[in-house]
Amino acid sequence: MFQVRDRVVHPMHGAGVIEEIVDERINGQRAQYYVFRMSVGGLVLKIPIENCESIGIRPLSSTEHIEEIIAEIPALDADMNVNWNHRYRENMDRIKSGDLLEVSRVIKGLMWRDRQRGLSNGERKMLHSAKQILISEIVLVTGAEYTDVEQKIDEIMMLGDR
Questions:
Q1: Nearest alpha-carbon partner for 19 in 7, 8, 35
Q2: What is the mean pLDDT of residues 37-66?
Q3: DSSP readout, 99-116?
Q4: pLDDT tens readout for residues 83-109
Q5: First to last CA, the chain
Q6: Distance between CA atoms of 106 and 112, rounded to whole angstroms?
Q7: Which of 82, 83, 110 is nearest to 94 (CA)?
Q8: Is the pLDDT of residue 78 over 80?
Q9: CA-wise closest residue to 138 among 40, 37, 36
Q10: Packing angle of the helix pair 121-142, 100-116 (nearest 10 deg)
C-alpha cells in the first residue's frame, strides 16, 4: 500500500504523486481511493486502492533503471505491424504493460513511422501519450526540466536503426 506523498506511476497516465487517501461511498459501497496528481499536466485521478495492482500502479523507477532504459533506446527494435489495427492494439498493450522499455519501443516505432509515412490522428495521440508517460517518470526521478528531457528523448529515439 502506498502512502501520501509517495511518487508512483500509472501505466496509462505516467508519473505523479499521491496527494491523499480518501474514503468514498459509490453505489452504496464504501471504498478507499488514492488521489493521484500527475507531475506533468496536473491531471488528478482517484484510483481505487483495491484495484492498484490490477491497474499496474507501481513505484517510480530508480535513477539507475532510467539510465539503463535511455542507454538501450538506440538499439531497440521498433518494427511495427503493417496493419494499422494490429499495430494500434500491439502498441496499446505495450503502453498498458507499464514497462518503460516497451513504452520506449512504441515511441521509437511511431516516431520512425511518422518520419517515413506520417501518422494518423489516433497514432499521433498515442505517440504524445507514450512520450508523456516516459518523460513524466524521467522528470520525476531526475528532477530535470520537461523540455530538456523531451528534447533528449526526441534525439535518442532517432539514433540507431528502427
A1: 35
A2: 90
A3: -HHHHHHHHHHHHHHHHH
A4: 788 889 999 999 999 899 999 999 999
A5: 39
A6: 10
A7: 110
A8: no
A9: 40
A10: 140
